[in-house]
Design a protein that fits this description.
homodimer; 223 residues; Arc Repressor Mutant, subunit A; Four Helix Bundle (Hemerythrin (Met), subunit A); three-stranded antiparallel β-sheet; DNA-binding; WH-like_DNA-bd_sf (chains A, B); transcription (chains A, B); GntR family transcriptional regulator (chains A, B)
Chain lengths: 223, 223
DNA sequence: GTGATCTAACTTGTATGGTAGTATAGCAGT
DNA sequence: ACTGCTATACTACCATACAAGTTAGATCAC
Protein backbone atom coordinates (compact mmCIF):
# COMPACT_ATOMS: atom_id res chain seq x y z
CA UNK A 1 0.00 0.00 0.00
CA UNK A 2 1.46 3.26 -1.11
CA UNK A 3 1.46 6.36 0.99
CA UNK A 4 -0.80 8.99 -0.37
CA UNK A 5 1.19 11.08 -2.82
CA UNK A 6 -2.02 12.93 -3.53
CA UNK A 7 -1.67 16.51 -2.49
CA UNK A 8 -4.06 19.29 -3.25
CA UNK A 9 -3.43 20.37 -6.81
CA UNK A 10 -2.18 23.89 -7.39
CA UNK A 11 -4.71 26.60 -8.02
CA UNK A 12 -3.46 27.05 -11.55
CA UNK A 13 -4.02 23.35 -12.28
CA UNK A 14 -7.51 23.46 -10.82
CA UNK A 15 -8.52 26.50 -12.84
CA UNK A 16 -7.15 24.85 -15.95
CA UNK A 17 -9.18 21.72 -15.31
CA UNK A 18 -12.39 23.66 -14.70
CA UNK A 19 -12.03 25.83 -17.78
CA UNK A 20 -11.06 22.90 -19.95
CA UNK A 21 -14.15 20.98 -18.95
CA UNK A 22 -16.33 24.01 -19.54
CA UNK A 23 -14.89 24.55 -23.01
CA UNK A 24 -15.09 20.93 -24.09
CA UNK A 25 -18.64 20.71 -22.85
CA UNK A 26 -19.47 23.83 -24.86
CA UNK A 27 -20.60 25.66 -21.74
CA UNK A 28 -18.07 28.26 -22.74
CA UNK A 29 -19.04 28.71 -26.34
CA UNK A 30 -16.47 29.28 -29.09
CA UNK A 31 -15.61 32.93 -29.54
CA UNK A 32 -16.25 33.86 -25.94
CA UNK A 33 -13.79 36.40 -24.58
CA UNK A 34 -12.10 35.38 -21.38
CA UNK A 35 -10.03 37.73 -19.31
CA UNK A 36 -7.53 36.94 -16.62
CA UNK A 37 -9.04 39.47 -14.26
CA UNK A 38 -12.58 38.30 -14.81
CA UNK A 39 -11.84 34.62 -14.22
CA UNK A 40 -9.63 35.49 -11.27
CA UNK A 41 -12.49 37.41 -9.67
CA UNK A 42 -14.90 34.58 -10.33
CA UNK A 43 -12.72 32.02 -8.57
CA UNK A 44 -11.48 34.47 -5.91
CA UNK A 45 -7.85 33.98 -6.80
CA UNK A 46 -5.19 36.22 -8.25
CA UNK A 47 -4.51 36.70 -11.92
CA UNK A 48 -1.32 34.70 -11.97
CA UNK A 49 -2.71 31.16 -11.63
CA UNK A 50 -5.44 32.04 -14.12
CA UNK A 51 -2.81 33.23 -16.53
CA UNK A 52 -0.97 29.94 -16.20
CA UNK A 53 -4.18 28.07 -16.85
CA UNK A 54 -4.63 30.10 -20.03
CA UNK A 55 -1.16 29.11 -21.17
CA UNK A 56 -1.99 25.46 -20.71
CA UNK A 57 -5.25 25.86 -22.59
CA UNK A 58 -3.51 27.70 -25.41
CA UNK A 59 -1.07 24.82 -25.78
CA UNK A 60 -4.03 22.49 -26.15
CA UNK A 61 -5.48 24.73 -28.84
CA UNK A 62 -8.59 25.38 -26.80
CA UNK A 63 -8.07 29.12 -26.44
CA UNK A 64 -6.16 31.70 -28.37
CA UNK A 65 -4.14 34.31 -26.53
CA UNK A 66 -3.84 37.53 -28.48
CA UNK A 67 -1.23 39.68 -26.76
CA UNK A 68 -2.57 42.89 -25.29
CA UNK A 69 -5.97 42.15 -26.80
CA UNK A 70 -7.57 39.28 -25.00
CA UNK A 71 -7.97 35.56 -24.73
CA UNK A 72 -10.75 33.85 -26.62
CA UNK A 73 -12.26 30.42 -26.70
CA UNK A 74 -11.15 29.09 -30.05
CA UNK A 75 -13.79 28.70 -32.67
CA UNK A 76 -14.08 25.24 -34.14
CA UNK A 77 -12.08 25.02 -37.33
CA UNK A 78 -13.47 22.41 -39.67
CA UNK A 79 -10.06 21.43 -41.02
CA UNK A 80 -8.69 21.01 -37.52
CA UNK A 81 -11.50 18.67 -36.61
CA UNK A 82 -10.93 16.66 -39.75
CA UNK A 83 -7.22 16.42 -39.07
CA UNK A 84 -7.87 15.45 -35.47
CA UNK A 85 -10.15 12.74 -36.76
CA UNK A 86 -7.48 11.54 -39.16
CA UNK A 87 -4.83 11.29 -36.46
CA UNK A 88 -7.18 9.67 -34.01
CA UNK A 89 -8.19 7.06 -36.55
CA UNK A 90 -4.57 6.22 -37.28
CA UNK A 91 -3.77 5.74 -33.61
CA UNK A 92 -6.93 3.94 -32.59
CA UNK A 93 -6.68 1.52 -35.49
CA UNK A 94 -3.18 0.56 -34.45
CA UNK A 95 -4.26 0.26 -30.83
CA UNK A 96 -7.29 -1.87 -31.67
CA UNK A 97 -5.18 -4.25 -33.73
CA UNK A 98 -2.84 -4.78 -30.81
CA UNK A 99 -5.74 -5.17 -28.42
CA UNK A 100 -7.23 -7.87 -30.63
CA UNK A 101 -4.02 -9.81 -30.27
CA UNK A 102 -3.69 -9.41 -26.51
CA UNK A 103 -7.23 -9.47 -25.13
CA UNK A 104 -7.91 -12.18 -22.56
CA UNK A 105 -11.24 -13.24 -21.06
CA UNK A 106 -11.12 -10.70 -18.24
CA UNK A 107 -10.36 -7.87 -20.63
CA UNK A 108 -13.23 -8.82 -22.91
CA UNK A 109 -15.55 -8.90 -19.94
CA UNK A 110 -14.51 -5.39 -18.95
CA UNK A 111 -15.22 -4.13 -22.45
CA UNK A 112 -18.65 -5.68 -22.47
CA UNK A 113 -19.34 -4.06 -19.12
CA UNK A 114 -18.72 -0.63 -20.57
CA UNK A 115 -21.07 -1.47 -23.40
CA UNK A 116 -23.78 -2.24 -20.85
CA UNK A 117 -23.11 1.05 -19.09
CA UNK A 118 -23.53 2.90 -22.35
CA UNK A 119 -26.85 1.20 -22.99
CA UNK A 120 -28.37 2.42 -19.73
CA UNK A 121 -26.93 5.92 -19.85
CA UNK A 122 -29.62 8.52 -19.36
CA UNK A 123 -27.74 11.70 -20.18
CA UNK A 124 -25.36 13.04 -22.73
CA UNK A 125 -22.50 13.41 -20.30
CA UNK A 126 -23.09 9.96 -18.85
CA UNK A 127 -22.96 8.31 -22.25
CA UNK A 128 -19.85 10.18 -23.33
CA UNK A 129 -18.08 9.18 -20.12
CA UNK A 130 -18.83 5.52 -20.77
CA UNK A 131 -17.79 5.98 -24.38
CA UNK A 132 -14.46 7.41 -23.35
CA UNK A 133 -13.98 4.68 -20.76
CA UNK A 134 -14.35 2.04 -23.43
CA UNK A 135 -11.83 3.58 -25.78
CA UNK A 136 -9.36 4.00 -22.94
CA UNK A 137 -9.89 0.43 -21.86
CA UNK A 138 -8.98 -0.77 -25.32
CA UNK A 139 -5.73 1.14 -25.08
CA UNK A 140 -5.02 -0.41 -21.70
CA UNK A 141 -5.63 -3.87 -23.09
CA UNK A 142 -3.21 -3.14 -25.89
CA UNK A 143 -0.62 -2.08 -23.33
CA UNK A 144 -0.58 1.39 -24.85
CA UNK A 145 -2.16 3.44 -22.11
CA UNK A 146 0.22 6.30 -22.68
CA UNK A 147 -0.80 6.34 -26.32
CA UNK A 148 -4.26 7.12 -25.06
CA UNK A 149 -2.96 10.30 -23.47
CA UNK A 150 -2.14 11.52 -26.95
CA UNK A 151 -5.56 10.63 -28.24
CA UNK A 152 -7.10 12.35 -25.25
CA UNK A 153 -5.42 15.61 -26.23
CA UNK A 154 -6.37 15.31 -29.86
CA UNK A 155 -9.86 14.27 -29.01
CA UNK A 156 -10.70 17.51 -27.21
CA UNK A 157 -11.34 19.23 -30.53
CA UNK A 158 -13.67 16.46 -31.60
CA UNK A 159 -15.42 16.30 -28.26
CA UNK A 160 -16.45 19.91 -28.52
CA UNK A 161 -18.35 18.94 -31.63
CA UNK A 162 -19.72 15.81 -30.05
CA UNK A 163 -21.25 17.70 -27.18
CA UNK A 164 -23.19 19.66 -29.72
CA UNK A 165 -24.25 16.69 -31.74
CA UNK A 166 -25.10 13.87 -29.41
CA UNK A 167 -28.73 14.67 -28.93
CA UNK A 168 -29.40 15.95 -32.40
CA UNK A 169 -27.56 13.90 -34.93
CA UNK A 170 -26.20 10.58 -33.78
CA UNK A 171 -28.52 8.47 -31.67
CA UNK A 172 -26.70 6.59 -28.96
CA UNK A 173 -28.09 3.36 -30.29
CA UNK A 174 -26.21 3.80 -33.52
CA UNK A 175 -22.94 4.47 -31.70
CA UNK A 176 -23.44 1.55 -29.34
CA UNK A 177 -23.90 -0.74 -32.32
CA UNK A 178 -20.59 0.46 -33.72
CA UNK A 179 -18.92 -0.02 -30.36
CA UNK A 180 -20.35 -3.48 -30.16
CA UNK A 181 -18.75 -4.43 -33.44
CA UNK A 182 -15.38 -3.24 -32.22
CA UNK A 183 -15.68 -5.27 -29.04
CA UNK A 184 -16.76 -8.38 -30.92
CA UNK A 185 -13.83 -8.13 -33.30
CA UNK A 186 -11.40 -7.78 -30.40
CA UNK A 187 -13.06 -10.67 -28.58
CA UNK A 188 -12.64 -12.78 -31.71
CA UNK A 189 -8.96 -11.76 -31.89
CA UNK A 190 -9.62 -10.60 -35.43
CA UNK A 191 -7.31 -7.64 -36.03
CA UNK A 192 -8.60 -6.93 -39.52
CA UNK A 193 -12.20 -6.85 -38.37
CA UNK A 194 -11.21 -4.60 -35.47
CA UNK A 195 -9.53 -2.20 -37.84
CA UNK A 196 -12.56 -2.09 -40.10
CA UNK A 197 -14.91 -1.53 -37.16
CA UNK A 198 -12.81 1.32 -35.79
CA UNK A 199 -12.60 2.99 -39.18
CA UNK A 200 -16.35 2.75 -39.59
CA UNK A 201 -16.83 4.25 -36.15
CA UNK A 202 -14.44 7.08 -36.85
CA UNK A 203 -16.28 7.88 -40.04
CA UNK A 204 -19.34 8.80 -38.03
CA UNK A 205 -18.21 12.32 -37.27
CA UNK A 206 -17.70 12.99 -40.96
CA UNK A 207 -21.42 12.73 -41.49
CA UNK A 208 -22.24 14.98 -38.57
CA UNK A 209 -19.91 17.84 -39.34
CA UNK A 210 -21.62 19.55 -42.28
CA UNK A 211 -24.98 19.48 -40.55
CA UNK A 212 -23.49 20.92 -37.36
CA UNK A 213 -21.64 23.66 -39.19
CA UNK A 214 -24.92 24.63 -40.82
CA UNK A 215 -26.81 24.64 -37.55
CA UNK A 216 -24.27 26.40 -35.33
CA UNK A 217 -22.39 28.71 -37.70
CA UNK A 218 -21.28 31.07 -34.93
CA UNK A 219 -19.22 28.31 -33.35
CA UNK A 220 -17.19 27.66 -36.46
CA UNK A 221 -14.40 29.65 -37.96
CA UNK A 222 -15.11 31.19 -41.33
CA UNK A 223 -11.43 30.97 -42.32
CA UNK B 1 3.00 40.38 -49.38
CA UNK B 2 1.71 40.23 -45.87
CA UNK B 3 2.36 42.91 -43.34
CA UNK B 4 4.71 41.73 -40.69
CA UNK B 5 2.58 40.05 -38.05
CA UNK B 6 5.85 39.01 -36.49
CA UNK B 7 6.18 40.77 -33.21
CA UNK B 8 8.84 40.08 -30.70
CA UNK B 9 7.74 36.95 -28.90
CA UNK B 10 7.13 37.22 -25.19
CA UNK B 11 10.01 36.49 -22.88
CA UNK B 12 8.25 33.42 -21.56
CA UNK B 13 7.93 32.01 -25.07
CA UNK B 14 11.57 32.73 -25.85
CA UNK B 15 12.80 31.06 -22.69
CA UNK B 16 10.61 28.08 -23.45
CA UNK B 17 12.06 27.76 -26.93
CA UNK B 18 15.63 28.01 -25.72
CA UNK B 19 15.20 25.47 -22.96
CA UNK B 20 13.31 23.10 -25.22
CA UNK B 21 16.08 23.13 -27.78
CA UNK B 22 18.69 22.60 -25.11
CA UNK B 23 16.81 19.64 -23.65
CA UNK B 24 16.10 17.95 -26.97
CA UNK B 25 19.70 18.39 -28.01
CA UNK B 26 20.79 16.81 -24.75
CA UNK B 27 22.77 19.89 -23.79
CA UNK B 28 20.69 19.88 -20.65
CA UNK B 29 21.12 16.29 -19.64
CA UNK B 30 18.30 14.25 -18.10
CA UNK B 31 18.12 14.60 -14.35
CA UNK B 32 19.52 18.12 -14.28
CA UNK B 33 17.87 20.34 -11.70
CA UNK B 34 16.57 23.62 -13.02
CA UNK B 35 15.33 26.42 -10.82
CA UNK B 36 13.24 29.43 -11.63
CA UNK B 37 15.66 31.79 -9.94
CA UNK B 38 18.74 30.26 -11.57
CA UNK B 39 17.39 30.38 -15.11
CA UNK B 40 15.95 33.83 -14.52
CA UNK B 41 19.37 35.08 -13.45
CA UNK B 42 21.02 33.45 -16.45
CA UNK B 43 18.73 35.19 -18.93
CA UNK B 44 18.48 38.41 -16.91
CA UNK B 45 14.71 38.24 -16.63
CA UNK B 46 12.31 37.82 -13.76
CA UNK B 47 11.16 34.49 -12.40
CA UNK B 48 7.62 34.71 -13.72
CA UNK B 49 8.30 34.17 -17.44
CA UNK B 50 10.68 31.37 -16.55
CA UNK B 51 7.98 29.75 -14.49
CA UNK B 52 5.61 29.92 -17.44
CA UNK B 53 8.25 28.33 -19.65
CA UNK B 54 8.55 25.51 -17.13
CA UNK B 55 4.80 24.95 -17.31
CA UNK B 56 4.95 24.65 -21.07
CA UNK B 57 7.86 22.23 -20.85
CA UNK B 58 6.08 20.16 -18.23
CA UNK B 59 3.09 19.82 -20.52
CA UNK B 60 5.42 18.48 -23.20
CA UNK B 61 6.83 15.96 -20.72
CA UNK B 62 10.29 17.41 -21.05
CA UNK B 63 10.60 18.47 -17.42
CA UNK B 64 8.97 17.39 -14.21
CA UNK B 65 7.83 19.99 -11.71
CA UNK B 66 7.86 18.68 -8.18
CA UNK B 67 6.05 21.21 -6.01
CA UNK B 68 8.23 22.91 -3.43
CA UNK B 69 11.11 20.65 -4.43
CA UNK B 70 12.37 21.62 -7.79
CA UNK B 71 12.06 21.22 -11.51
CA UNK B 72 14.10 18.56 -13.23
CA UNK B 73 14.85 17.60 -16.80
CA UNK B 74 12.97 14.36 -17.24
CA UNK B 75 14.99 11.25 -17.56
CA UNK B 76 14.31 9.21 -20.65
CA UNK B 77 11.79 6.50 -19.87
CA UNK B 78 12.20 3.53 -22.15
CA UNK B 79 8.49 2.76 -22.23
CA UNK B 80 7.66 6.34 -23.12
CA UNK B 81 10.05 6.26 -26.04
CA UNK B 82 8.56 2.99 -27.24
CA UNK B 83 5.05 4.37 -26.98
CA UNK B 84 6.06 7.54 -28.77
CA UNK B 85 7.49 5.37 -31.51
CA UNK B 86 4.27 3.39 -31.70
CA UNK B 87 2.13 6.48 -32.05
CA UNK B 88 4.46 8.08 -34.52
CA UNK B 89 4.49 4.98 -36.69
CA UNK B 90 0.70 4.87 -36.74
CA UNK B 91 0.44 8.48 -37.83
CA UNK B 92 3.28 8.51 -40.31
CA UNK B 93 2.08 5.34 -41.99
CA UNK B 94 -1.32 6.89 -42.55
CA UNK B 95 0.26 10.10 -43.78
CA UNK B 96 2.60 8.31 -46.16
CA UNK B 97 -0.26 6.34 -47.67
CA UNK B 98 -2.14 9.54 -48.40
CA UNK B 99 0.97 11.19 -49.76
CA UNK B 100 1.47 8.28 -52.15
CA UNK B 101 -1.96 8.95 -53.55
CA UNK B 102 -1.56 12.70 -53.90
CA UNK B 103 2.06 13.31 -54.85
CA UNK B 104 2.60 15.17 -58.11
CA UNK B 105 5.84 15.75 -60.01
CA UNK B 106 6.71 18.92 -58.14
CA UNK B 107 6.16 17.27 -54.78
CA UNK B 108 8.35 14.33 -55.69
CA UNK B 109 11.07 16.72 -56.79
CA UNK B 110 10.93 18.49 -53.45
CA UNK B 111 11.31 15.19 -51.62
CA UNK B 112 14.29 14.20 -53.69
CA UNK B 113 15.84 17.57 -52.97
CA UNK B 114 15.71 16.90 -49.23
CA UNK B 115 17.36 13.55 -49.86
CA UNK B 116 20.21 15.31 -51.59
CA UNK B 117 20.53 17.71 -48.68
CA UNK B 118 20.79 14.81 -46.28
CA UNK B 119 23.52 13.23 -48.34
CA UNK B 120 25.78 16.25 -48.10
CA UNK B 121 25.09 17.06 -44.47
CA UNK B 122 28.30 17.44 -42.53
CA UNK B 123 27.00 17.58 -39.00
CA UNK B 124 24.59 15.84 -36.74
CA UNK B 125 22.30 18.83 -36.40
CA UNK B 126 22.38 19.51 -40.13
CA UNK B 127 21.34 15.98 -40.98
CA UNK B 128 18.56 15.89 -38.41
CA UNK B 129 17.19 19.17 -39.75
CA UNK B 130 17.03 17.76 -43.27
CA UNK B 131 15.53 14.57 -41.90
CA UNK B 132 12.79 16.49 -40.17
CA UNK B 133 12.19 18.61 -43.25
CA UNK B 134 11.57 15.50 -45.32
CA UNK B 135 9.06 14.02 -42.91
CA UNK B 136 7.23 17.33 -42.67
CA UNK B 137 7.20 17.66 -46.43
CA UNK B 138 5.50 14.28 -46.73
CA UNK B 139 2.81 15.51 -44.37
CA UNK B 140 2.36 18.64 -46.44
CA UNK B 141 2.00 16.58 -49.61
CA UNK B 142 -0.65 14.49 -47.90
CA UNK B 143 -2.49 17.66 -46.98
CA UNK B 144 -2.08 16.81 -43.31
CA UNK B 145 0.31 19.47 -42.17
CA UNK B 146 -1.46 19.90 -38.88
CA UNK B 147 -1.08 16.19 -38.27
CA UNK B 148 2.63 16.86 -38.35
CA UNK B 149 2.27 19.20 -35.40
CA UNK B 150 1.16 16.21 -33.37
CA UNK B 151 4.08 14.14 -34.52
CA UNK B 152 6.40 17.01 -33.74
CA UNK B 153 5.31 16.98 -30.12
CA UNK B 154 5.54 13.21 -29.80
CA UNK B 155 8.84 13.16 -31.57
CA UNK B 156 10.61 15.26 -28.94
CA UNK B 157 11.03 12.23 -26.73
CA UNK B 158 12.54 10.25 -29.58
CA UNK B 159 14.76 13.09 -30.69
CA UNK B 160 16.44 13.23 -27.33
CA UNK B 161 17.55 9.67 -27.97
CA UNK B 162 18.50 10.39 -31.54
CA UNK B 163 20.83 13.18 -30.54
CA UNK B 164 22.70 10.64 -28.49
CA UNK B 165 22.75 7.99 -31.13
CA UNK B 166 23.38 9.60 -34.48
CA UNK B 167 27.13 9.43 -34.47
CA UNK B 168 27.48 6.19 -32.63
CA UNK B 169 24.83 3.78 -33.74
CA UNK B 170 23.05 4.59 -36.95
CA UNK B 171 25.20 5.78 -39.81
CA UNK B 172 23.49 8.43 -41.87
CA UNK B 173 23.95 6.32 -44.95
CA UNK B 174 21.68 3.66 -43.53
CA UNK B 175 18.97 6.21 -42.70
CA UNK B 176 19.25 7.86 -46.08
CA UNK B 177 18.74 4.50 -47.75
CA UNK B 178 15.55 4.04 -45.75
CA UNK B 179 14.40 7.54 -46.62
CA UNK B 180 15.11 6.84 -50.23
CA UNK B 181 12.82 3.83 -50.22
CA UNK B 182 10.02 5.90 -48.74
CA UNK B 183 10.41 8.54 -51.41
CA UNK B 184 10.52 5.99 -54.20
CA UNK B 185 7.36 4.33 -52.96
CA UNK B 186 5.55 7.66 -52.82
CA UNK B 187 6.86 8.60 -56.27
CA UNK B 188 5.51 5.30 -57.59
CA UNK B 189 2.14 6.04 -55.93
CA UNK B 190 2.43 2.70 -54.18
CA UNK B 191 0.70 3.10 -50.82
CA UNK B 192 1.53 -0.40 -49.63
CA UNK B 193 5.21 -0.01 -50.40
CA UNK B 194 5.19 3.38 -48.67
CA UNK B 195 3.66 1.85 -45.56
CA UNK B 196 6.24 -0.92 -45.51
CA UNK B 197 9.10 1.53 -45.98
CA UNK B 198 7.88 3.77 -43.17
CA UNK B 199 7.46 0.83 -40.81
CA UNK B 200 10.96 -0.36 -41.59
CA UNK B 201 12.30 3.11 -40.94
CA UNK B 202 10.45 3.42 -37.65
CA UNK B 203 11.88 0.09 -36.54
CA UNK B 204 15.35 1.59 -36.60
CA UNK B 205 15.10 3.15 -33.17
CA UNK B 206 14.14 -0.18 -31.67
CA UNK B 207 17.57 -1.51 -32.45
CA UNK B 208 19.33 1.53 -31.02
CA UNK B 209 17.53 1.75 -27.70
CA UNK B 210 19.06 -1.16 -25.74
CA UNK B 211 22.58 -0.19 -26.75
CA UNK B 212 21.98 3.44 -25.76
CA UNK B 213 20.45 2.52 -22.42
CA UNK B 214 23.53 0.45 -21.73
CA UNK B 215 25.90 3.19 -22.72
CA UNK B 216 24.19 6.16 -21.02
CA UNK B 217 22.47 4.63 -17.99
CA UNK B 218 22.34 7.93 -16.09
CA UNK B 219 20.06 9.41 -18.72
CA UNK B 220 17.44 6.73 -18.37
CA UNK B 221 14.90 6.18 -15.66
CA UNK B 222 15.38 3.05 -13.63
CA UNK B 223 11.63 2.75 -12.97
C1' DG C 1 -22.43 65.98 -40.55
C1' DT C 2 -17.77 64.10 -41.00
C1' DG C 3 -13.30 63.01 -39.83
C1' DA C 4 -9.14 62.99 -37.11
C1' DT C 5 -7.31 62.91 -32.49
C1' DC C 6 -6.92 62.35 -27.84
C1' DT C 7 -8.28 60.04 -23.62
C1' DA C 8 -9.74 56.45 -20.67
C1' DA C 9 -10.74 51.82 -19.87
C1' DC C 10 -9.64 47.72 -20.90
C1' DT C 11 -6.17 43.73 -22.26
C1' DT C 12 -1.86 40.71 -21.58
C1' DG C 13 3.12 40.85 -20.12
C1' DT C 14 6.74 41.43 -16.55
C1' DA C 15 8.82 42.27 -12.05
C1' DT C 16 8.92 41.71 -7.15
C1' DG C 17 7.69 40.50 -2.35
C1' DG C 18 6.07 37.21 0.65
C1' DT C 19 4.39 32.35 1.99
C1' DA C 20 4.40 27.48 2.72
C1' DG C 21 6.60 23.41 2.02
C1' DT C 22 10.94 20.46 1.62
C1' DA C 23 15.61 18.93 2.34
C1' DT C 24 19.93 19.31 4.47
C1' DA C 25 23.66 20.49 7.46
C1' DG C 26 24.92 20.97 12.02
C1' DC C 27 24.43 20.61 16.81
C1' DA C 28 22.70 18.37 21.01
C1' DG C 29 22.07 14.53 23.82
C1' DT C 30 22.76 10.04 24.47
C1' DA D 1 29.78 6.68 16.95
C1' DC D 2 24.94 7.29 16.49
C1' DT D 3 20.28 9.14 16.75
C1' DG D 4 17.03 12.96 16.85
C1' DC D 5 15.99 17.74 16.79
C1' DT D 6 16.57 22.44 14.92
C1' DA D 7 17.98 26.26 12.14
C1' DT D 8 18.72 27.49 7.56
C1' DA D 9 18.77 27.64 2.82
C1' DC D 10 16.74 26.36 -0.74
C1' DT D 11 12.23 25.28 -3.81
C1' DA D 12 7.72 26.27 -6.30
C1' DC D 13 3.56 28.90 -5.59
C1' DC D 14 0.60 32.92 -5.12
C1' DA D 15 -0.62 37.82 -4.76
C1' DT D 16 0.23 42.40 -5.94
C1' DA D 17 2.04 46.35 -8.42
C1' DC D 18 3.56 48.25 -12.51
C1' DA D 19 4.44 48.56 -17.58
C1' DA D 20 3.17 48.42 -22.41
C1' DG D 21 -0.02 47.82 -25.85
C1' DT D 22 -4.83 47.84 -27.93
C1' DT D 23 -9.41 49.52 -28.58
C1' DA D 24 -13.52 51.99 -28.28
C1' DG D 25 -15.67 56.26 -27.50
C1' DA D 26 -15.92 61.08 -26.60
C1' DT D 27 -14.34 65.41 -28.11
C1' DC D 28 -12.85 68.87 -31.00
C1' DA D 29 -11.76 70.96 -35.59
C1' DC D 30 -13.55 71.72 -39.95
Amino acid sequence: MKVIPQRAASIGAQVHQQLRDAIVRAELTPGTALSEAEIAARYLVSRQPVREAFIRLAQEDLVEIRPQRGTFVKRIVMDDVLDARFVREAIEVAVAREAAGKADAAAIARLQATLATQAVATSNAEFLAADEAMHREIAVIAGRESAWRVVDQIKAQMDRVRYLSYIDVSPAQRLIAQHSEIVEAIAAHDANAAEAAVRAHMAEILQQLPELARRYPEMFEGS
